[in-house]
Amino acid sequence: MRKYLFLGISAFAIAIYLTNASWLAGTRSGKPTLIAHRGVYQTYNRENLGRDDCTAIRVFQPEHQYLENTLASMQAAFDAGADIVEIDVHPTTDGEFAVFHDWTLDCRTEGKGTTREHTMEYLKTLDIGYGYTPDGGKTFPFRGKGVGLMPTLEEVYRAFPDREFLINIKSGRPQEAVQLDNYLRERNLPTRGKLRVYGSEKVMEKIRKLRPDAWVFSRDSVKQCTYRYLMLGWSGYVPEACRNGAVVAPNTWHWALWGWPNRFLQRMEDAGSLVMVLDFKHRSPGGVHGIYTPEQIDFLSTDYRGALWVEKIEVIGPYAKTKFGLEN
Description:
Glycerophosphodiester phosphodiesterase family protein, 10-stranded mixed beta sheet, TIM Barrel, 10 strands, GP_PDE_dom, alpha/beta, single chain
């Protein structure tokens, strides 16, 4: 009896191994997808950073002249190798969508109050570089240089008709999904590829109903996907939460993902999802964040064909070109 039990367990273990053997899946075609968070932007000190803290007063000494969510920043990101640029949007009182990160204006600009409670006409008058200081208020290197640089969502799409963007809806109100859908349909946007959007799960549920072909995810859907796959992925099953969205592959425990790398990537690609590598080692109260340094992706093989969520595209773009053998 013990002999048959041992054989049964051995056969089951071999079946699981073969089901999840990466080498049997072969390598993926194409190239890695680089997602530039906020474009090229001024990075900042995340130590003891609270979710609502002003980051403009925590920036490091400037290494370049770009400010996040501006057309120049997006162009620089694409020039550095980005395939997709992540942007943040807010509806305005005059029917536009402003591309701006913060919920309020007080941190980065000379304006006051909630971003969405103003007209786009007013937002265009603000200096989005006003509040940046790397030395506790002694100097403000971007003050006066960001006047009128806050773009509308339409301006972004029109400026880059052959490029792709990932839209972050900052609100948790489902009605905002309807507003965004109407706004894009009236203007025949996006001009290339499918709509890519993420935000709160309630808003994303609405987007999925309005745009069944959209690429959509939320923090909740990513968590559900990861946890359920860890429990059931050994069987080859891909949870519903993992379909047509994003799947996170933390750079510290990617080994726990059944079939990593090639079998895992194949399953998620077949499910219509994009696997994104993030940095899980240097977590902050706001959650995990993207890739800053080449060392954070050195664990990836040269034939990796998923995505990278990148914070410093100006550093990672050129490095990825060499590491993965990317063409211009």
